Amino acid sequence: MSFVSKEKIAPATWKVTAHIEAKDFCDQLDTTFAKELKKITLPGFRPGKAPRTMVEKRYGDKIFFEDALEALLPAAINGAMEEAEIEPQFRAEDLDVPEDQDWKENGIDLTFTVAAKPEIEIENYKGIEVEVPSPAVTDADIDGRIDELRRRNARHVEVESRPAQNGDIALIDFLGKLDGEPFDGGAGQNYELTLGSGQFIPGFEEQVVGRAPGESFEVNVSFPEEYHAANLAGQPVVFEVTLHELKAEELPEVDDDFAQEVGEDYNTVDDLKAGIAQELAESKAKQAGEAFDRAVQDKLDGMLSGEIPSAMFDKRTQQNIEMFLERIQMPLEQYLQLIGEDPAAFEARMREQSTAQVRIELALEEVAALEGFEPTDEEVEAEYARLAEQYKVPLARVKYAVPEDDIVDDLNRGKALELVKAEAVKKEV
Q1: Which domain does 12 fall in, by range?
Q2: N vs C: which end of the chain shows fewer Cβ within 10 Å?
Q3: Is 413 found in the same domain as 348?
């Protein structure tokens, strides 16, 4: 068995040709025949005693061809990759063994494709500059949160003394017509529409503003060109509208009574502001930390160079899709119908995320290799124990399910990320 040739067909992806010598194949065929003969019965012979020539005459000389080939393939493929100096990333694929070969005289040629371990580089990963949001809490932040609480605790009071304006809640009946005929989904009664919210198609709410309760009027608008209903997309329509009632938000005063209504821990407005400041400080610190992690990893992605086989992105994309569907517990077709997304767009989005994940992991693995990171046995055992505790399963089951090499890679990537973060220069924005 020997390596014949290799051809690069894509980044870090090779088509390899290997050869199995005729003698090696014939010897394996003899071994396979001797093993399988006991299963064959021919008239006039006891089981396993029929001459090989008669068996081949009846069933053909390739009766055990596939069995012999299967026995030799692992060594042939692995040997060829070793001679070709290819370190595989995944198992060989697209195996092809042409049928019209004189295997008894010339042996067997076969081809396969393999994604090689990518050769990547990363430099200057220490001292990278990243922009992160400032975790500082300002008076404007506190005032903004108080405004949110006021709106959350607002009362809606009926308005009679003025026409409708943005922010009002209008109670309306409406009937939409296309070329004078009502269309599906274009009617509603006693519908509460917050003016200025953008709930309806562009132009509708603006034409309700300025109207008074009790008025009936027409609203002339056109559906957007990209509207999901093809029969309405881009079409001009007329809505017959009756405005029954207007309600406006009445915000509570910011006083001690308001503070006590918001939370039992607050007695005064100062207590409320102090509590909000602490809550915002914790939230902003967490957001800043997450943003810092993302910014560092994005920088590493941009600094990575080298060829990466598309099979790595393909495999991660498929894994991520499977995990996503397991999490949402519904068929992909149903999910895409709910969110109105095209399958191709969904897969492209998942592949973009997966590509970034693979590149960042490769960058961190390269940093770990350059730094000579290697976890101790104690660290590996501690990580196994952490996983067992996290998933509430016996330690032995975790060790059976998760190879130690995967644990080592995870720990090394974690150490590499902490190193890069520790050396990074933060620029608050």
Answers
A1: 2-117
A2: C
A3: yes
